[in-house]
Amino acid sequence: MSDRDQINRRDFIVTTAGVAGSASALAGATLTTAEAQTSPPAGFDAQEPFAKNWAKPLREVVQVDPIVAAPELANEAVKERHRIYCHLLMKLMVRFWNGNKRGPLGSYPRRVKQMEAVQPVQPTQRYRGDMIENPDRLRINWDRYVGHNIACVAVDGNGEIIDFDFNHNDFFRSSAEHAESRMVRRLFSLTDIFDSWKTGERIGDKSRAVSLQNVTLYTSLESCAQCSGVMSLGGVKQVVYLQNDFTAYMIGNIMFNLANPVSGLPGAPKPIPASAVGLQQFQVLNDANLAFVKDIQDAKARNDSTRAFFISPDKTVVDFDPSITSFLCTDAARDIFEAGGKQLDAMALKFPNEKHPDERDVLTNQECLEEARSFFKYADLEGYRGSPHKL
Ligand SMILES: [Zn+2]
Fold first, then answer.
1. H or E segment to which residue 291 belongs
2. Tens of pLDDT along 84-103?
3. Are 352 and 68 in contact (CB under 8 A)?
4. Measuring CA to CA, how many Å separate 272 from each of 32, 129, 162, 166, 237?
5. How crowded is residue 48: how many other Cβ atoms within 10 Å of its Cβ?
6. Protein residues placing their CB within 5 Å of the ion ligand 1
7. What's the CA gap between 143 and 135, in Å, rounded?
8. How many angstroms is it from 30 CA to the middle of ligand 1?
C-alpha cells in the first residue's frame, strides 16, 4: 500500500465516521428531550430489560448481585467447587507464564525472579519465558511471547474440564485473539466431535453445539466487550473471573442486565467475580494491579528507570506503560498466581461428597478436584500454551 493510499484510506474512515456521527445526531434530534428522558425510542421500548434500565443511572445499570444471579452461591459447597477450577486456572497461568512482552532481551526491573540463570554478556539481560524445567526431546521448548498472560478454562455442567486457552494477540498480530473468545469459537468447532460433554440440553434432534448453556468459563481477567459478546451469543451459562479489568467498564454486568432472556435463560453469561466464590486472590490481584499502576506512573513522573516496566538493550526505549498486560508480566503478579496455583495441590475439601446440581453423572467436589489435578498433568505434558489439543 502506497503512502497516498494510506492517506486516502484514513480520510475515508474519518469521512465515513463523520457521516455516521451526523446521521445519529439527526436521529437523536427527532427525540424531544422529554421523550428521551421518559421512555426509550420506539422499538427499543419493547425490549424489556433495556426499557426497565432506561432511566437508571450507570451505577445501578452495572449492579449485579452474584447471589441473586446465581442463588446457589449461598452454598459453601458450590463455592468450594468453583474455587477448585480457579486454582487450576492459576496453576495453568504459571505453567505457561511468559512475561517477555518486549522480548527476552533487555531489562525488566519488575521481573528479577524471571531472569535466566545463565546470563549473556552485558549490557543486556535475558529473561525466562514459558520454557519448561525438564526439556523433552519430543516437544519444542519454545520461548516466544505469543500473547498476554490471560487464560481461561471451560467446564461443562457435570464438572468435567473441556479445555483451556490463552490470549494469542501477538501470535496473530491481532488485538482480538482473547482467551475467552478463542475458547468459545473452539467449543463450537469441537462439539460436533466430542458430544459426551454436557455443554447444554439437546434441543430436539438439533446438534448439541447450538448452545453452551451448561458451560462455565473461568477466566483470569474480567471479560472485555468482545468476549462478553461472544459468550452471550454462545449462550455460555456463567463466567467466573479472577481479577477486574478496570478498563472494561463492567461490560459483562451491563450486558447481563440489558440482554433479553433467551428461552427463559439470561441472554448473557452471569458475571461472577471470584470474590463471590470466596477466592482470596481476587482482592490481592486487584490491589497489586492498582499498586503497580500507581508506582509506575510515579516512576515515569520522576523518570526513574529502575522502576520502569522495560528498558531496551541499547537503553533508547524505556517503557512506563501502566497497562494490565504489563502488570501481568511482573513478579508481583506471578507470585500471586503461583500461590493460588499451589492451592490446587494443597487444598483439603470441606465438602468432598457434595455435587451441584445433585444429578446423575455430575462429579462430586472430590471428583472435580481429581479431574482438575489430572487435567493439569495432561496440559503440562501434552498441551502447549492454549494450542488446539485433544485432537
Ligand atoms: Zn476479551
1. helix 281-301
2. 999 999 999 999 999 999 99
3. no
4. 38, 31, 20, 20, 11
5. 11
6. 178, 224, 226-227
7. 12
8. 35
CA atoms within 13 A on the CB side of 79: 16
- The tally of CA atoms less than 13 A away on the side-chain side of residue 130 is 23
CA of 150 to the centre of ligand 1 (A): 9
- Taking the centre of ligand 1 as the mean of its atom positions, its distance from the CA of residue 173, in whole angstroms, is 15
How many whole angstroms from 354 Cα to the centroid of ligand 1? 33
CA of 148 to the centre of ligand 1 (A): 11
Distance 226 CA to ligand 1 centre (A): 5
CA distance 127 to 119: 9
Secondary-structure breakdown of the chain: helix, strand, coil percentages, each rounded to the nearest 5: 45, 10, 45
The CA 324 to ligand 1 mean position distance, Å, reads 13
Measured CA to CA, the distance from residue 245 to residue 247 in angstroms comes to 5
What's the CA-to-centroid distance between 80 and ligand 1, angstroms? 26
Q: How confident is the model at residue 207 (pLDDT cuts 50, 70, 90)?
A: very low
Answer whether 53's CB lies under 8 Å from 240's CB.
no
pLDDT of residue 210: 47
Q: How far apart are CA 353 and CA 367, in angstroms?
A: 9
pLDDT computed for residue 293 by the predictor:
98
Stronger pLDDT, 323 or 140, i.e. the higher one: 323
Q: How far is the CA of 179 from the centre of ligand 1 (A)?
A: 7
d(CA 49, CA 301): 45
Comparing CA positions, the residue from 177, 198, 174, 203 lying closest to residue 187 is 198
* Omega before residue 352 within 30° of 0, cis: no
DSSP 46-70: G-HHHHHHTTS-HHHHT---HHHHS
pLDDT category at 16 given cuts 50, 70, 90 is very low
Q: Calculate Rg over the CA atoms of the chain.
A: 23
164 CA to middle of ligand 1, Å?
15
Distance (angstroms) between ligand 1 centre and the Cα of 228 equals: 7
Q: Which residue has the cell 478498563?
A: 247
